[in-house]
Amino acid sequence: SETVVLLAHVNSLTMGNSLEAMGKGPESFSLAAIAKDTNFSREELMVLHENFHAAAKESPDDGTSVINKEQFQAILQKSNIQSTNQGFLEELFHAFDKNNSGTVNFVEYCTGVSVMLKGTTEEKLKLSFEIYDQDKSGKISQTEMMQVLHNMNVSLKAAEASSKGFTDEDIQAFVTKIFAECDLGGDGYLSFSEFYKAVVKYPGLIEFA
């Protein structure tokens, strides 16, 4: 169809044209609108969409407009985002997946990548907060922080200035310490402002790569 041709040749689109994403729950979006909500230019979004659509076409679900976790990790490399920490990439995918669908659509992808590549310090800190806030409740529990640190196998050496390896018991003690010092409300959770205080004291919390 003409729509498929347009998607295959996204660089030929003109300002104001919309791209029709085929497949599950067809969606349309404007490059101009996404550019307004991110730090990308329309030209940069064209390249991102070309890479995204190429990855989505490899899905076993014919014509899908979303990417799964494996495709997400592969396409990040084309956006100059690389990490050898598999756990981090999995947690990042979950943070990008705003509606907990188990997939990431183009708008979700652009929003997240924009923060990682061109975001302000506050925007990047909010993304880090969302990585820990696994149930997307707007607050972080000790269990969530423990789980994320365990999954990513983050080196806590930067935070604790220790040369030893860390067991789950070490991580639990570290998380308990953070909450004792930074959970100022005493409700057993870290709000965004409390998380910020924790990061200032322990920057290793957001050293994911």
Walk me through this protein's architecture:
- It comes from Calcidiscus leptoporus.
- Pfam families: EF-hand_7, EF-hand_8.
- There is one protein chain.
- With 209 residues, the chain is mainly alpha-helical.
- The chain folds into two domains: 2-118, Orthogonal Bundle (Recoverin, domain 1), CATH 1.10.238.10; 137-206, Orthogonal Bundle (Recoverin, domain 1).
- The protein has helices at residues 2-8, 31-37, 42-56, 69-78, 86-96, 106-118, 121-132, 142-152, 157-160, 168-182, 192-201; strands spanning 18-21, 27-30, 66-67, 104-105, 140-141, 189-190.
- Strand 1 (18-21) and strand 2 form a beta hairpin.
- Helix 5 (86-96) crosses helix 7, helix 8 (142-152) crosses helix 10 and helix 10 crosses helix 11 (192-201).
Radius of gyration: 19 Å
Mean pLDDT across the residues is 78
What is CATH's topology name of the largest domain?
A: Recoverin, domain 1
Structurally, the number of domains stands at 2
For the record, give the distance between the C-alpha atoms at the N and C termini, rounded to a whole number: 42 Å
Give a quick account of the main beta sheet: strands, pairing sense, barrel closure. Answer: 2 strands, antiparallel
Major β-sheet strand ordering:
1-2
CATH architecture of the largest domain: Orthogonal Bundle
